[in-house]
Amino acid sequence: MPDVTRRMLELLAQLQTGRRFAGGELAARLEVSPRTLRRDVERLREYGYPVTTQPGPSGFYQLAAGRTLPPLVLDDDEAVATLVGLALLGSAGPPEPEGHSGIASAADRAFGKIDQFLPKRLRPRVTALRATVEAAPQSAPAVDPEALAVLGLAAARHELVTFDYVGRTGRSSRRRVEPYRQVHLHLRWYLLAWDIERADWRSFRLDRMSGIVTTAVSFGPRPLPARSAAEYLREGITAPRHRAVVTVEAAAAAVRDALRFQDCEIDVVTATRCRIVTWVDSFEWLVLNIALTGAEFTIEQPAEFRARSRELAQRLWEAGGESPR
User: How far apart are CA 22 and CA 25, in angstroms?
Assistant: First the structure.
């Protein structure tokens, strides 16, 4: 690779970190003179990269956001990570309705475009990874990438949006909200927003939204109702459930694996003991999954959990044709 090309790529890689560089620092990193640096920056601008500069003692160079998307420069690890992430997202996505394009198909298209520009030395690695890495299909509704983008921009700009929404009962309504955060939880995408008509916080599933329209009406941002949108959403989902606390005579890592699909907190007590705090619809489901770990355990809370477990034990003994000892 000619020295000029290598130098330009290195300059672009430095600027794509997003930080500001003093002229002297950037020239030293590239081992060029300030004059050569200025000339290389002008070349980048001609290629469509919006490099901003500020002269003087406190001057700097910085890559600004432009109107076009010039070619990106990724190092080997970044390129592999990007393509593997797209491959997993594409293969793990749910089936999409005919005529609709969701995140999975968008990821597949993006993979194909980036793959074309991989250097020859990386192609065997990425090809091998894609051929040998599988992601099991998830039972999750498809979400329109355009909906994610529109809502994200509206939230960032503090702009009201309206949309049609189908609730869990199947009833449809037109909503007008202040969007704040989008959260991916339990294979679903949610929007946390302040509902204007109901004067309260609400969460909406994106796959149940349609006809999303930005209104160009701005709003003053409110403080979130919890430390994070994800925490608020978890609290709302677990509110109708039962809180359970169990101590298990097993390493926390083993219990996390057994309860990997359960939203719970697992704290280490000792190297061979942990404490589970979770919220469940069914005590019976939880006690059976913990029992299947083969470890001894103690139900701490609530008393109803202990009573339901004893009833379950009675039924299991009777199902086996024996009486409890």
Answer: 5
What is the pTM assigned to this prediction?
A: 0.54
What value does the mean pLDDT take over residues 215-244?
84
Return the closest-CA partner of residue 52 out of 82, 21, 79: 21
User: What tokens appear for 128 in the block?
Assistant: 């091998």
- Residue 110 DSSP SS3: helix
- Shortest CA distance to 61 belongs to which of 49, 79, 48? 49
DSSP H or E stretch at residue 173:
strand 172-185
Strands of the sheet containing 200-205, edge to edge, are 200-205, 188-195, 172-185, 159-166, 209-218
CA atoms within 13 A on the CB side of 311: 8
Q: Could you give the CA distance from residue 155 to residue 177 in angstroms, rounded to a whole number?
A: 10
Read off the pLDDT of each residue in 308-324 and give the average, rounded to a whole number.
81
Closest CA to 234 of 277, 198, 267, 194: 277
Phi, psi of 97 (to 5 degrees): -60, 150
Helix (H, G, I), strand (E, B) or coil at 16: coil
List C-alpha distances in Å: 28 to 35, 57, 59, 132.
12, 16, 15, 43
Of residues 246 and 281, more confidence is placed in 246
> According to DSSP H, which parts of the chain are helical?
3-15, 23-30, 34-46, 76-92, 103-115, 123-132, 145-157, 229-238, 252-258, 283-291, 303-319
